[in-house]
Amino acid sequence: LLISLFTGLSIGAGVCVAQGIGAKDDDRVSKAVHTAIPAAVIGGIALTVIGVFGSRYFLEWMATPVNLIGQATLYMQIYFAGMIPILVYNFGIAILRSAGDTKSPLLFLTIAGILNVVLNVFFVVILKMTVDGVALATIISQAVSAVLVVIALMRRTDACKLYLHKMRFYKQPFFKIIRIGLPAGIQSSMFAVSNVIIQSSINSFNSEALMSGNGAAGNGYPRGYDHDHLRCRPSVRHGPYLPERHRRHLLLPVRFPVGSQEGRQKGCQGSVITNPIKKLTAKAVSFFIAVYFFSF
Fold first, then answer.
1. Which of 88, 2, 74 has the alpha carbon at shortest distance from 37?
2. How crowded is residue 227: how many other Cβ atoms within 10 Å of its Cβ?
3. Helix, strand, coil content of the chain in percent (nearest 5)
């Protein structure tokens, strides 16, 4: 819940940068970039303190079984200790995507994912660690991805270039990031609130039922990440304010339910495309619609 709230602020950073790029205001873009990274660091410190010292209490409030609470607390404490690189990564990729660079975040995420798998095997299989090894693998891979994002920003040649000595809180972009990102963070947290309530109820069952419920929830939970990049694209148009181009991008999200959300939500209302040929056709059509809209 807390992570979703703070991560939502990265959306505000991305929108601010995108609007500055659209308005061709390099000073505005630079201030937004150099405000976003310190905001990520401060937010990471706050989450680290809250998580490390509050993990046990959070799990007790959720009625976590006694035989699991010790390992769960250890995992959460180690995971929360890595909040700074996690937020730096999220804020950094929001800036890169706003600048039109979607390949670098994908590359960094791939590297981090592979490293996470390798470290999991090393810590758990070779060193015989338990949940602490899994948590360490996660935060180490996140730290690597955060470093890669910062290096990518420092190597840029446009207004999004990051200078470490220029990082500070600029008043106007800081409050704009809060104003745009906070509602998005609260919106993301709503799913987390419902999950906390449901998880608290599931925790009253035995450990086997708890694990089965988590597995089913993980497979059926609708993802919202597919649409994150749609927030920045209209913001670039909003910079110079081009309403005729806004209309194109407002229609773009309509195509996503065909290939993503409906396919994941087995119990949703309406029909789900199950025929392989029809599904492939729908995805192809949606792809060309996306290419058409994004080409303007």
1. 88
2. 13
3. 80, 0, 20
Question: 246-278: b or e for each residue (b if 16 or more CB lie within 10 Å)?
Answer: eebbeebeebeebbbebbeeeeeeeeebeeeee
> Whole-prediction pTM value?
0.70
- For every residue of 202-240, DSSP letters joined together read HTTS-HHHHHHHHHHHHHHPPP-GGGGGGTHHHHHHHTT
Q: Which two tokens stand for residue 290?
A: 């996306």
Distance CA 8, CA 265 (A): 24
DSSP classification of residue 253: G
H or E stretch at 42: helix 26-61
Number of H helices, E strands in the chain: 13, 0
CA 140, 5, 33, 12 dihedral sign is: positive
Q: Are 188 and 10 in contact (CB under 8 A)?
A: no
Instruction: Give the integer Cα–Cα distance in Å for 116 and 239.
Output: 38
Task: Report the C-alpha gap between 19 and 67 in whole angstroms.
Answer: 51
Query: Model confidence over 230-268: pLDDT tens digits?
Result: 455 454 444 444 555 545 555 544 444 444 444 444 443
